[in-house]
Amino acid sequence: MRSARFRRTRRASAVTLVSALTLTALAACGTSSSNDSNGDGTQQNGSSDPTTPLDPKTKVTLTIDCMPPTAKAAELKEWKEDIATFNKTYPNVTIEGRSTAGQCLEPPRFTAMLKAKSQPDVFYTYFTDLPQVLDNDGAADITAYVNDKSVPLLKDIDPNVLAFLKQDDKLYGLPTSNYTMGLLINRKLFTQAGLDPDAPPRTWDEVRAAAKKIAGLGNGTAGFGEYSAGNTGGWHFTAQMYSVGGDVVDASGKKAAFNNELGKQVAKNLHAMRWEDDSMGKTQLLQWGDLQKQIATDKLGMFLAAPDDIAYMVQQLGAKYENFGMGPIPGEKATLAGGNAYMIKKGISPDKIKAAIAWLNYKNLSVGKGQFAWDRTKRDGLPVGVPQPNFWLNDSKTKDDAARVEHATMPVANFKSFMDNPVAGKAEPPKAQEVYKVLDNVMSGILTNKDADIDKLLATAETQVNQVLANQ
Known about the structure:
This protein is an alpha+beta fold. It has helices at residues 4-9, 73-89, 107-116, 130-135, 159-163, 187-192, 204-215, 232-243, 261-276, 290-296, 308-317, 350-364, 374-379, 394-406, 416-420, 432-448, 454-470; strands at residues 19-22, 36-37, 43-44, 60-67, 93-99, 122-126, 166-167, 170-171, 173-180, 182-186, 222-224, 300-305, 324-328, 335-344, 425-426.
């Protein structure tokens, strides 16, 4: 699974390495249609009825991106294991994995791939990528292929998550993960400042008060941190707008909606924390990775984040799980939600589409299997217990939640406030990355200039975002 840090910040990787992992399919059982061609040299022999799941006798080869790179040995081991198990049911499906050394989806490369029609049969996307994919006629409409036979737990997948992958009631992808933002805290600093780490702040006034106490510990410690560069400042400004009941783009998707009293409230609160309280630290123009390093080294008390930041800080930065906790996003009117998915290339054969759905169902959409085999995840030394991804409902959620707790590698009680107080998720705005780039200027202006003219910053950004939205 891929984390929110990759889905949202879209940092460009310095090196892109594409390799292939091919598992040789067993010999196909002969059928009367075994000479039908998929157009790529492989054979097909299944039903052309899209509502019928893949026939196990069908012989196809699928290319799939985001296979874990060699550097992620445990994840790659699980990928290979899942293919072997999948092939017990579908022995004639050959999966060729494509691996990227750094970020799986790098936006310029992704855009070029779509325009060249060179995406693999099953390709990884962010929820926000759907408009771009459809503009380039890149994804198959899989509505008829996805049902309770091909995806038995379909009824238990949160429809709000599936909605990110729909347009005009047509389904173009299947989710692999989702997230909502909350308030990530350093429990050690909370305790040292006389705050209750089991009760993170629930309002922005409480955040401000707690940040002052934490900053008061001295030694260069900041109470609250924010981004203001690399599109991440605009991303977090959006999250804060949602948290107080606002928006950044209106319901029509054509006009900016942040140059108002709520936008000024968010901006003025940040400006006051930075310059009046001195609780946000002197170093600004931060982007993804900077706040994680600060909180992991006990130099930051709290910031807005998705839960999977915790696993990243433990695995990559050497932090300890027990040092972190989470609460809901302050304000709690709404929270920014997102995630990622796989889509299926338009124009491939019905058999390939069915094979892709069968694989995605096993790997990403089955409780107790694939990415949700938490007992295996624990054995492999990977994190278990992070609250998200969690797009399950009903009995599936009950079972998956229980397995996460049973096999947890971290103190799940630290996330109780976040889990017990769910906040409705809200999708990112249209033209999200372009909007975020503009709003970076608002955040950087607030956090680097004591004399910042907030009204002017918001008005200028409004004009620029309206120009962005006019070019859809």
